[in-house]
Write a structure and sequence with these properties.
Strand content: 15-25%
Number of helices: 6
Shape: globular
CATH topology: Nucleotidyltransferase, domain 5
Largest sheet: 5 strands, mixed
């Protein structure tokens, strides 16, 4: 028995501009009136208060997804995410994971995070399938991340805790509604579109 799913990560550049409205006089100088009865001009700037990483797990056939918000996207963060994937399917003999070619997306990351015995245990149950170089968009989870960006992240979010709550609510609504991806891109389409990057071997 095997399960298949997609894993992706998003560096949230909206969650990063966690806004703190700082009213600055024009150019940092004292505000001044341009003419009698004219309003004082002020310029508002946003201060960058941090960044956040989002790991997304997506199983299209089950119409299920889960997202984790982390401070970083290191090898250890990836390894912890893979342990959560492995634990989510206790009855599966093998869990097939589709992911892109980020340098941390490798078995070596698990050995950085765990003792060798635990790393081997997790890796025995995971089967990595990397998308081709320059073609991470072939991973269906990228569509989910795009929907998340449009529906949830295209605004300023004040802090990581609020970000996690907002994403959790979005995840719950998508899962309850049975949302999935209508994937129509075939292997033949891929061969044609990627022919320049991956020419046919003689």
């Amino acid at each position: 028995m095997a399960h298949g799913g997609c894993v992706g990560a998003l560096r949230s550049e909206e969650a990063h501009r966690l806004p703190r409205g700082v009213a600055l006089p024009d150019g940092g100088r004292e505000a001044h009136a341009l003419a009698p009865k004219a309003r004082t001009l002020q310029r508002y700037e946003y201060e960058r208060n941090g960044t956040a990483n989002i790991f997304a797990f997506f199983e299209p056939k089950r119409r299920w997804r889960h997202l984790d918000v982390t401070e970083r996207r290191t090898a250890v963060d990836f390894a912890l995410a893979m342990r959560r994937v492995e634990e989510h399917y206790p009855a599966a003999e093998k869990v097939r994971v589709v992911l892109d070619n980020l340098n941390t997306h490798s078995p070596a990351s698990l050995y950085k995070a765990f003792e060798p015995e635990e790393a081997r245990h997790i890796l025995r149950r995971l089967e990595f399938h990397h998308t081709p170089t320059h073609a991470s968009w072939l991973n269906m989870v990228e569509i989910e991340l795009s929907v998340l960006s449009r529906q949830c992240l295209e605004r300023r979010i004040p802090d990581a805790e609020r970000l996690a709550r907002e994403i959790g609510a979005w995840e719950h609504k998508r899962n309850e509604g049975g949302a999935t991806v209508q994937w129509r891109f075939t292997a033949s389409d891929a061969r044609e579109k990627l022919a320049r990057l991956y020419p046919a071997q003689p």
